[in-house]
Specification:
The protein is mostly helical. It has one domain. It is 78% helix and 0% strand. It has five helices and no strands. Helix 4 runs antiparallel to helix 5. The protein starts with 5 loop residues before the first helix and ends in a 7-residue tail after the last helix. Pfam families: TM2. Keywords: Membrane, Transmembrane, Transmembrane helix. It is found in: Membrane. It comes from Paractinoplanes pyxinae.
């Protein structure tokens, strides 16, 4: 495999930096779940505004949605990060094999 030209490496680094700036952290999501789970704070952090508002007004679906989210947060963070990475790489014109 040939070495990438300098301008291409720079473009890849810029794309990686842009992704890191929009990436969500699992640890932060779980901390927000622990502190504000019944109000949907972790969902607001993950950008699930509709579900967040529903949790806010129903106190986490009477606690049921909050309890279910403890098992779903990790998967949701990974899905959001995959989507955001794909969007950033597409914006920079990079085909991401990861």
């Amino acid at each position: 495999m040939s070495e990438l030209p300098e301008w291409e490496r720079l473009r890849v680094r810029q794309a990686e930096f842009a992704y890191e700036s929009v990436r969500k952290e699992t640890r932060v999501a779980y901390t927000l779940w622990l502190l504000t789970g019944i109000f949907g704070g972790h969902r607001f952090y993950l950008g699930d505004t509709g579900r967040s508002i529903a949790m806010l007004f129903t106190l986490g679906g009477c606690g049921l949605w909050t309890l279910a989210d403890v098992f779903l947060i990790g998967r949701r963070v990974r899905a959001i990060n995959r989507s955001r990475r794909a969007a950033v790489m597409a914006r920079y014109g990079i085909v991401d094999a990861a």
